[in-house]
Structures are given as C-alpha cells and as structure tokens.
Amino acid sequence: MKNQNQFLTCIFFLGFSFLASLVFSQNTVNSNQKPNILFILSDDHTSQAWGIYGGILQDYVQNKNIKRLVDEGTMLNNAFCTNSICTPSRGSILTGQYSHTNQVYTLSEPLPKGHPNIAKTLAKNGYQTAVIGKWHLVGQPEGFDYFNVLPGQGRYWNPILKTKESWSDGYDASTGKEYKGFSTDVIADLTIEHLKERDSKKPFLMFCNFKATHEPFDYPDRFKNLYSDITIPEPESLLDFSPKTTGRTFIGQKLEKLGQRWDNATKDPENWWTTYPGLPYPLDGLDSIQKRKKIYQKLVKDFMRCGAAIDDNIGKLLDYLEAEGIADNTIVIYTADQGYFLGEHGFFDKRMIYEESLRMPFVIRYPKKIKGGQRLDDIILNIDFPALLADYAGIQKPDYMQGRSFRKNLEGSTPVDWRKQLYYRYWLHHPERPAHFGIRNQRYKLAFFYGQPLGKKGTNEVTTEPAWEFFDLEEDPKEMYNAISESKYSTIIQEMKIAMLEERTKYNDLDEGSEVMQNILAKEFD
To answer: What angle do CA 500, 507, 462 make, to 5 degrees?
Structure first.
C-alpha cells in the first residue's frame, strides 16, 4: 500500500510538473507573439474636434471611446503631417516617405506600381494584411491580402466598395458592391466581419479607414438632433476676413465658399458634386459678420455629429477585441490623415501649414508595452508611423522609410538625437492657397509660399509672388500675427532659413529639375 501511494504521488507530481511546463511554455509563446495591429484612420477629424486637446469644443464633443483609448494608451501632443491633404498623407502613412519620394504630391497620383509600403513589409513577415474603407490612392492597393475600399471619396449613405475582384483604377463605382447603411457604421462592421474570418494563428495588420469627417460632414439619424438647441463657442479668429487682419500672405478657403456650396447644392442638387445634411440653410439678408457666424454654426455642428459616429464605432471595434480576448496583444491606433480648419482664420478645409491643418491627433494603445494615460510632447511625423509598426512587429526599419520609429519615445526613453524640428511641403498650388514649404520647432514656425504649380496634377497655373510668414507659437499660439518683419526675430528667422535648407537637403527635396524654383531659391535664400 505504501509503495502504491508513493507511486500515485510520483505520478501526481509528474503530471503537475508537465502541466505547469505546458502553461509556462504557452505563456512564453504568448509573451513573444507578434502584436496584432488595428490602425483606425479617419479623414479630416481634426484635433479641435476630439475633445482631448483642450479648446472651445472640448465640452461639446461626443468622445467617450476616444477618451477610453486615451485613458488606456498614450496620446501625441505634437504629431504632424508632412503634406496636409488626404491622398499624400495616406501615401506617407503607408510608405514612411515624403511626397517627393513616394510621388504622391496632390490628389490625383497613385503610389507607383511595385512601390514598397508597410503592408508589403509586414505581409512578408507573417502578417495578414487588410484595408477596408477609404483608400483614396487611385490605383489598386498593393501589399494587402484583402481590400474592400471606397472608390475615391465614396458616399456617406449606402456606400459602394470595391474588392480585388471588382477593381478598376480610378474612382468609378459601377463595378463595386453597395452596402446599406451609414458609411462609418458599415466600414466598422465590415472590419469586424473580416477579423472574425482571419487565421487566428497569425498576427494581423488591419486598416479601418473611415470616410468621416470629410465634407459634406454627414451623420446618421441618431445624431440629427445633437446640438440643435445650443450655440457653439466661436474661435478667436473667426472674423479674420482678409490678409490685412493678421498679415498672412494668402486668401485661403473662406467659410463663405462653404455657404455658397450649400446654396448650389440646394438650387441644383442633381448637378452638384455632393449632398449636404440639413439643407436648405438660408443665409440671405445677413451682413458679413452674421453670415460668417451662421455658416460656422452649421459647419461645426455637422462636423461634431459626423465625429460622434466615429466615436461610436471605435467603441464597437474595441469591444470586439475585448470579446475575442486579443485586446492585450493588439496595438490600436486612432488618428486622422491631417487636421482641418473649423472657422479658425475664417477658414474651412486644410492644406496650409497653420496649426489647425498641420497637426494630426493621434492615440495609441498597447497594454503590453505602453503605459496608459500618458501624453508625449516629442515631434512626431506621419512618415514615422510605419517605422513604428515595423518596430513593434520585430522588423528592422526598412531602408525605404524616411521616418523613424518612436517606440522608445512611447516607452519613456526618447532618444537624445530625436528631431527638434519638422519639415513640411504642400504641392497642390492654387493662388488662394499657394504651394509652400516650411519648418516648425517647439516654439517657432517659418513658411515660404513660393506660389508655383511646378506641373503637378490638379494645380492652378496662376502663380503668386513669393512670400514669407513667421510665427512665435509661444506668444502667438493662434497664429494671428505674421511677425516676419519684426526686427527682434531677425536672427531667429535667419537661423530657421538655414535650418530649412538643411532639412530640404536631409530629405533630398531640392527642386533640382526646376529652373523656376532654382531662380526663386537663389533669390530668397541668398
């Protein structure tokens, strides 16, 4: 009996040790798993409308799920795009390259066929890759095992999406499939459906790209009465009516143009390029101040209603990850392709190097590696995003990327040689929004509006005279005074001009093939 008990005891401990080793082994495997990546990208969802960056809208924005991400992750206070317009920014997010390198300058160029991107890189390293929603890069997506994307901007209601089987380059929607519902809801649901069908033994890179909050700023019926009985506070520079007000050197996209678009869509809906919610919206009989104020109220309310649908669907995506038990091993990023003017300087739209347009809101959650509730002040660019993803996937930064991983920054040890300034260039020239490049550091910004189309697609041939703008962001955070002629800044401006040339050399953006630019540069930087 004694021997039998000893035998049973031995068997018990052997079995326990075996099970323990299995658990340990499994935990070791899990701890070394490559993370899943859910990259949620919206269009124009500017930081003013996130409600987590302060500002006049913070008490009005519907953002419980954005706040949920922020509480559980790290938000970037100083993330910026390198070309503030949809197609080029998306090109940079995918390739880690400036526009002059990936050749996506304006709204009309696809990425060159065969061009490297982060989806291709991760796919070669065992990732399942997919993109659903807004693509906006003209040509067929490459590097994705699966795609189902809007043709061009797509539409808010009953969107049509195209897969590889129905693909044709350009924005023709005739070959796609219609999905009933509001686009933000549809895109999130399609994303979850695709993830449910994934191979759970492999990590995934999933781009969920919303059309929202792009013009015409539509929203689902559940938000149609949101803000209906209140007046939203106005930005300080709403009544900036002309360059004379602040010394800015260009006209810009003024709110009155949006009001005219509403009028055109009301009078001739069959021939206007889009439909807007809440029309008609009469502006007749108002003076210039009353008219601008009324246009602003509709723009900002529609924009926040549209953004509320994004927040709803972020919550739906996060809940899915929790239910699947993969939230801890999934990097979740939410960002927008650039910023947007919501009445600041009397503008709507983006494009310009001013803060509202230049700044990208960004939050990342990865419980295994990133502490929750943190804010990072380092200057981060959209060309850094794919390098970060490669880093977390255990891949050495590919040579084709001009950006740099900010993993160490997120994990609390910013490299001593991290950038102290950024370089920006906007190519889609129009005389009201001239082509320009510029440099920004933590305090100062210098911009050179060279005003030339340079043969880029979609540009206007009417040129503008070269002009400079300079802002002290500490004394003038709203950029309401162009201080380029202030003598107290002359030394700083000269130093920043030198730094601007250094940045252009660093990224090989030298306009070497343009005689007109060489002449302008020789004169302005002599």
So the answer is: 65
Contact between residue 85 and residue 430 where contact means Cβ atoms under 8 Å apart = no
Residue 273 one-letter amino acid: W
Question: For 310-353, how does the pLDDT look when each residue is reduced to its tens digit (9 = 90+)?
Answer: 999 999 999 999 999 999 999 999 999 999 999 999 999 999 99
Burial call 499-524: b when 16+ CB within 10 Å, e when fewer: bbeebbeebebebeeeeebeebbeee
Radius of gyration (C-alpha) of the chain in whole angstroms: 25
The CB density around residue 482, as the number of other CB atoms within 10 Å, is 19
For 155, half-sphere exposure in the C-beta direction (CA atoms, 13 angstrom radius) is: 17
What distance in Å separates the CA atoms of residue 243 and residue 309, rounded to the nearest whole number?
36
DSSP string, 79-92: EE-SS-SHHHHHHH
pLDDT at 23 over 50: no
Residues in the chain: 526
Above 80 in pLDDT, residue 6?
no
pLDDT, residue 18, reads 44
Per-residue model confidence as pLDDT tens digits over 99-120: 999 999 999 999 999 999 999 9
Strand, helix or coil at 423? strand
- Of 155, 149, 150, 136, residue with least CA distance to 94: 136
Query: Do residues 378 and 384 touch, judged by C-beta distance below 8 A?
Result: no
Task: Specify which residues 131 forms β-bridges with.
Answer: 147, 207
Q: Which residues pair with 182 in a beta bridge?
A: 157
Report the C-alpha gap between 148 and 377 in whole angstroms: 35
Taking the CA atoms of 26, 31, 36 and 41 in sequence, report the sign of the dihedral they define. positive
270 burial level (CB within 10 Å; 0-12, 13-18, 19+): exposed
How many whole angstroms separate alpha carbon 394 and alpha carbon 382? 20
